[in-house]
Design a protein that fits this description.
Blueprint lengths: L1 H31 L10 E4 L5 E6 L6 E8 L13 H8 L11 H8 L8 E5 L4 E8 L5 H16 L5 H17 L7 H5 L3 H4 L6 H6 L2 H11 L5 E7 L3 H10 L23 E9 L5 E10 L6 H23 L4 E9 L2 E10 L2 H21 L3 H14 L9 H14 L7 H12 L3 H17 E9 L10 H13 L22 H4 L9 E7 L4 E6 L4 E6 L6 E9 L7 H6 L3 H6 L8 H11 L2 E6 L3 E9 L3 H13 L5 H14 L5 H7 L2 H13 L12 H5 L3 H12 L6 E6 L3 H12 L23 E6 L5 E11 L4 H25 L7 E7 L5 E11 L3 H17 L4 H18 L5 H13 L4 H5 L1 H6 L3 H11 L6 E6 L2
Protein name: Protease3
Keywords: Hydrolase, Metalloprotease, Protease, Zinc
Family: Belongs to the peptidase M16 family.
Length: 950
């Protein structure tokens, strides 16, 4: 009986134990297959006709809705006689639909303040075509969404294919192709041999010239159906309202049965080794990349996220082992295209023999890791490094950024890992990573390598007699390394220096007494949310609190005075003054101690000087405002001197005087850089005296005391200094501290003289060309330069002229003549002290169209001078300015506010006008614009800088 009881007891103990164990394993297993959480509030669904929608209410930025229509079709779906058709269709969406004939769609959205190319655009890829609209939206503008969804409906089922318009657009696309540059020299190698390589999204010039309306219609009819589309709407929206609007527009498109549904196509590569080599005259050593295509990890479930982290651990493990063994090899693993990642071992060496040796050494290390695994200490270090980077992200995202994440979700089911619960589970699994798991990942990489491997070889062209590497030799080197007898790997843990916490130096802790006597006047600008405080010592404080999540104060101190204000002789005496002084830290704190303190206290700071201005930028957590302000004050007024580092730096520079660096060699042959330098010299962007070469005599004559004295006279002068504070902080608590600290600054006895003479723009016709660019193509810059009287209204008027010009050039040269693809007009201006501007009209076109473009440009300018821009056109452009301002300068944009206010100061624009931005903008009339065009854009004073193969 006793034995029977024991047997029963053991039986139930085992059963209950198994139940508990089962439950213990069930919870993790459930999480393994759990989808990564989508952003809170996401609503997904399908309309009756098969169209999918995703809607997410989001408050950032205000008065904005992002709309995307994602077609899960692209160039892969083209038949052989339709190549380039998917891309051509994308263009066709903007040249005529049922409800928006010709250019009416672009015109409508531009009247809402949107800009074509920025807010209205589209993109074609291998497996997707994306149409996007960034809508300015206020609750009363209900019609904007109705019209937007009507446009989506037209794109899906009611494009018009006017033969003449298609013919014209063909020329535009061909020019786009001519201007496109593939920046990867090994693109054809990495693409492999598959449908992707044969169906590039842009198509070829031959493809575009051969396609016609009938082929476009056939592709459109076959693929543009609701079941292939997803509409994504993110912003200040009501979900139910959006769904109802979609039902009434795109939801009315009849469903279409997909008789021949397509399947996802994998990237495939030929078996064995593929080799490609190129010479490079600019490099001093050769480079070999061993590229291993292997299946990508799509982060769909939590386990997928764990798998991706472990793959990163493998790459990290190999990188650290290679570095420990002095193997010059970088290891990376990144998504390349479709279903493939590229695991890359990138070697560098002075000769092919050295590259082969490193390849063999890397092979040996891979085999050792595969067979011997990772020790516990090494594994824990790998885990620790991963966990440092694996943190939740609960900050509020911009709607446009959320759209990018959702497009990956729509096209590949990839989800961003952000939710704290998800991240915590993934962290728990990463902590349990074993050596065996990393070995399994390496085994899969090596198996993929055996199947297909790509060698990208770049050798030094100058060494013509040196033997070159080839695929056979590279494979042989790998095999030789694999066969070497294995020795145990000795992991040497990186010594983690224990950094002693340094007490905050007394000069950074001091709390000056606030007194109203320091304030001359203060004023609030309610429309901007800015307080302006003028101190009696000449400093102006501009305070604009924002609501970013990290509670950081951003400080910018901006003052007049720079290198161009000095005589040529003085420029040489204080050459690179800010850099030399910066290495000295503070007068009361050494540089090394200061760097440690700043790191521990989360303080950052940088100083700089250009031709006419100097500045200090700094930031710190809001709770450390006292230390931040003291740091800035001490750096402005009491910099330190590090004589030893100064002497070493000058000695190093003396050694390198006259030596040509790799960068020098690259820039000497860079036609784009040569064009930019030429334009800079014409429009006054090169300060007087900077053309003088720094000689050994100049460096030997440098004196750190002279340099420091100059720095203190420049940076320590409060007269005319503007200090800008932005970020998430309590103004009532922080502003008195700032006032008390910076009120201590006193004007130097002998302030530096300032050169406030405006730049004298030359009235000339100028032509200069450089060899470069694509075959049979010219890239031309038409430059118009001059002077203006600084004010916000003058700046806005010039920007309106820029946009009017952009519109005319697009309509005439692109849409009517089809001789350019993407012309653009840029405006550059410097208000104080140079009072100068220059417009640049950039055109990329066939060599034979250069003369035609000149005639058309001259005609455009003549027309604008003779006939004022219409009020309707000007109002449309003004609306875009207002929309842009609202979108950029939000309550959660501290950096943008800082940049805007610095620009305001440097360009002599008033806060009064900025506060009344709309009134200032609306005060600009067609007659004013016409007069300024006549004065600023003189065809007889054009400067043309271009590049061409001719």
């Amino acid at each position: 009986m006793e034995k029977k009881l024991i047997r029963h007891t053991l039986f139930w103990a085992i059963v209950l134990g198994l139940l508990f164990v089962g439950r213990a394993f069930a919870l993790p297993c459930l999480r393994v297959n759990k989808y990564i959480t989508l952003p809170k509030g996401t609503v997904e669904g399908r309309l009756d006709n098969g169209l999918r929608y995703i809607i997410l209410p989001n408050e950032l930025p205000r008065h904005n809705i992002e709309v995307r229509m994602v077609m899960n079709i692209g160039s892969l779906q083209e038949e052989n006689d339709q190549r380039g058709g998917a891309h051509f269709l994308e263009h066709s969406a903007f040249i005529g639909t049922k409800h928006f004939p010709k250019r009416a769609l672009i015109d409508y959205f531009e009247r809402q303040g949107m800009k074509f190319g920025r807010d209205i655009n589209a993109f074609t890829g291998f497996d997707r075509t994306i149409y996007w609209l960034s809508l300015p939206y206020h609750s009363q503008d209900k019609a904007v969404l109705d019209t937007t969804f009507l446009a989506l409906r037209d794109w899906l089922c009611d494009l018009t294919f006017d033969d003449e318009r298609v013919k014209k657009e063909r020329g535009v696309i061909v020019e786009e192709l001519r201007g496109y540059q593939q920046n990867d020299d090994f693109y054809s190698l990495k693409m492999g041999q598959n449908r992707y390589a044969d169906h590039i999204p842009l198509g070829t010039e031959r493809d575009i010239n051969s396609i016609d309306s009938d082929r476009l219609k056939a592709f459109y009819k076959r693929w543009y159906t609701p079941s292939h589309a997803t509409v994504l709407v993110i912003g200040q929206v009501n979900v139910a309202e959006i769904v109802e609007k979609l039902r009434k527009t795109v939801g009315t498109i009849p469903a279409k049965a997909d008789k021949k549904p397509f399947k996802q196509l994998p990237m495939t590569y030929a078996k064995g080794a593929a080799w490609m080599q190129l010479s490079d005259s600019m490099q001093r050593e050769s480079k070999l990349e061993l590229i291993i295509p292997h299946p990508t990890i799509v982060e769909k479930t939590l386990q997928d996220a764990v798998n991706k982290q472990r793959m990163r651990m493998l790459a990290q493990c190999l990188s650290e082992r290679f570095a420990a063994d002095s193997i010059r090899c970088n290891v990376s693993n990144d998504w390349y295209l479709a279903d493939k990642d590229h695991f890359v071992l990138s070697f560098r060496g002075a000769s092919s023999a050295l590259l082969a040796q490193q390849l063999a050494a890397a092979s040996y290390e891979c085999r050792r890791l595969l067979q011997r695994g990772v020790g516990q200490d090494e594994l824990q270090q790998l885990i620790h490094t991963r966990l440092v980077h694996l943190l939740p992200d609960t900050t509020q995202q911009l709607s446009a950024d959320l759209c990018d994440d959702f497009i990956d979700y729509i096209t590949a089911e990839d989800r961003p890992l952000w939710h704290p619960d998800d991240v915590e589970w993934v962290r728990s699994q990463v902590k349990m990573t074993t050596s065996l798991q990393l070995q399994e990942y390496l085994k899969s990489i090596l198996k993929a390598m055996k199947r297909s491997r790509l060698y990208a070889y770049t050798y030094v062209a100058d060494n013509a007699n040196a033997p070159l590497l080839n695929a056979k030799q590279a494979d042989l080197a790998w095999k030789q390394g694999w066969k070497r007898p294995l020795e145990s790997y000795v992991y040497r843990q990186k010594a983690q220096p224990k950094e002693e916490t340094i007490k905050l130096p007394s000069c950074l802790k001091q709390t000056p007494t606030f007194t109203n006597a320091s304030i001359e006047n203060r004023k609030k600008w309610p429309e901007l949310g800015i307080e302006e405080i003028q101190l009696t010592n000449g400093i102006k404080l501009l305070v604009r609190p924002t609501l970013d999540e990290d509670s950081t104060i951003y400080l910018a101190a901006v003052g007049r005075g720079g290198t161009a204000d000095l005589s040529p002789q003085m420029q040489l005496k204080v050459h690179d003054a800010v850099s030399y002084v910066d290495m000295g830290g503070l007068a009361k704190v050494s540089c090394d101690t200061l760097l440690t303190v700043m790191t521990q206290q989360q303080l950052s700071m940088t100083v700089g000087e250009d031709a006419y201005w100097h500045q200090l930028l700094a930031s710190a957590p809001a709770k450390k405002a006292t230390a931040l302000f003291n740091l800035a004050y001490e750096k402005l007024c009491f910099p330190g001197i590090n004589r030893e580092d100064f002497a070493e730096t000058v000695a190093s520079e003396l050694e390198n005087v006259g030596k040509e660096t790799l960068l020098d060699r690259l820039l000497a042959h860079d036609s784009d850089r040569l064009m930019t330098n030429t334009i800079d010299s014409l429009v006054g962007n090169v300060a007087a005296g900077t053309e003088r070469l720094v000689t050994k005599a100049t460096l030997q004559a440098l004196n750190i005391d002279t340099i420091t004295n100059y720095y203190k006279r420049l940076f320590g002068n409060p007269s005319g200094l503007t200090i800008i504070l932005t970020g998430n902080f309590d103004a009532a608590h922080v502003v008195p501290k700032a006032i008390a600290t910076f009120a201590q600054m006193q004007a130097p006895q002998s302030p530096l003289p300032l050169n406030n003479s405006p730049f004298a723009a030359k009235k000339q016709t100028f032509f200069k060309g450089f060899e470069g660019g694509n075959d049979h193509q010219t890239v031309a810059n038409y430059v118009f330069a001059g002077n203006y009287t600084p004010s916000l209204q003058a700046t806005l008027s010039m920007k309106l002229i820029r946009d009017v010009l952009q519109d005319r050039v697009l309509k005439v040269l692109r849409e009517n003549e089809n001789i350019v693809y993407s012309p653009y007009v840029n405006l550059y201006y410097n208000g104080v002290p140079q009072q100068k501007y220059h417009f640049v009209i950039n055109l990329s076109l066939k060599d034979e169209n250069r003369q035609r473009a000149e005639i058309l440009l001259q005609s455009i300018l003549k027309d604008l001078k003779e006939k004022p821009v219409s009020t309707a056109e000007l109002d449309k452009l003004k609306r875009s300015f207002l929309v842009t301002k609202d979108k950029v300068l939000t309550d959660k944009a501290p950096s943008e506010w800082k940049t805007a206010l610095m620009s305001l100061v440097k360009n002599g624009e008033s806060l009064h006008d900025f506060n009344d931005y709309a009134a200032c903008l609306n005060g600009i009339t067609p007659a004013m614009v016409q007069r300024m065009i006549s004065e600023m854009l003189d065809w007889n004073h054009r400067m043309v800088v271009f590049k061409s193969q001719k």
